[in-house]
Amino acid sequence: MTGTEFGVVVAVGPDGVQDGVLDFAAAEALRRGTGVELVHVVHSFVAVPSAADQIRSLDNALLEVGRAVLTAVAERLRPRLRGRVPVGTEVLFGPVAATIAARAATRDLLVLERREPGGERLLTMSVSTRLAARAQVPVAVVPHGWAPGTHDPAVTVGVDHPIEAAGQVEPAAAYAAECGRPLRVLHAMWLAEAYQDTFFVNHARRKWTEEADRELRQVLDELDVVSAPAVTREVRWVRPVEALVGATRRSSVLVLSRRTGRGLVGADLGPVTRAVLHHAECPVLLVDRS
Q: What angle do CA 191, 193, 194 make, to 5 degrees?
């Protein structure tokens, strides 16, 4: 835990957030023993030269909108916390992604809502994706309409390469153990159709998948992941996006990892992660590799 009493930060748009986001944030705060801070960012869109009093008037109007939405969301959140941890609210000014990332930099977890396409919104999917990449803390992206208890309780972790799985599995195993949930380790492998006949002439697909499963089993045997209630592995011949999105239909949380040493905003979120964030049906937790 960090030194602040508000370890969980929830980004709130001008139209609030759905119940699933509050359920997820409350569960994480209670499990971690830390408070929740609700943050709304006012980004004044003044496209033409304006007088100082006009800008102040607009900012004040947007500030009131932010205060009102935070008050309403806080009232919905408090019963979920049962008075065990505090709730804070803060209206901030500035670019949305950069401001939220800076606010969450010293916290334990940043919770975002993935909105459905269409409609006016301040916290768009592009902002959520940028935040998922640039935030210095774990980021949970909760899909629009998600509710707890509607999926299998397992925590699933996606693994890129079995031989490098340790850095991806360790944080997911720790999370599953803290939640008291089983851990599913998923690796999906695929080649473009045009390459398959050539590649598999002397190397059967089954042999390739068996080799990947052997490597993954060896990595898991060497890791101390026995604290999770149950650990299973799954190696599938299917497109990674298809496998991971499918896993979100039978998982309580999908854990994906970001590479450390991030430079450009979004540089560490590849096309697979972006696609999964867009289509996931359960919360996606993005963490740095161990």
A: 105
Angle in degrees, 0-180, between the axes of helices 125-134 and 271-279, rounded to the nearest 10: 130
If we measure between CA atoms, which residue out of 131, 136, 144 comes closest to residue 11?
131
User: Token match 């396409």: residue?
Assistant: 117
Burial of 47 (0-12, 13-18, 19+ CB in 10 A): exposed
- The strand ranges marked E within 171-268 are 183-189, 231-237, 253-258
227 secondary structure, DSSP code:
T
Q: Characterize the bridge pairing of strands 231-237 and 87-93.
A: unpaired
pLDDT tens for the chain, residues 1 to 290: 455 799 999 999 988 999 999 999 999 999 999 999 999 998 755 554 556 665 666 667 778 888 999 999 999 999 999 999 999 999 999 889 999 999 999 999 999 999 765 544 444 457 888 888 889 999 999 999 999 987 789 999 999 999 889 999 999 999 999 999 999 999 998 877 666 666 665 567 788 889 999 999 998 888 866 555 689 999 999 999 999 999 999 999 999 998 765 544 444 678 899 999 999 999 999 998 86
Angle at 159 between CA 154 and CA 161, to 5 degrees: 155
Tokens of residue 33, six digits: 């023993």
DSSP state of 255: E
CA–CA distance, 286 with 255 (Å, rounded to integer): 6
Backbone angles phi, psi at 131, to 5 degrees: -65, -40
* Helix (H/G/I), strand (E/B), else coil: 286: strand
Beta strand pairing call for 8-11 and 109-114 = parallel
In angstroms, how far apart are the furthest CA atoms of the chain?
75
Residue 165 to residues 23, 219, 235, Cα–Cα distance (Å): 30, 7, 13
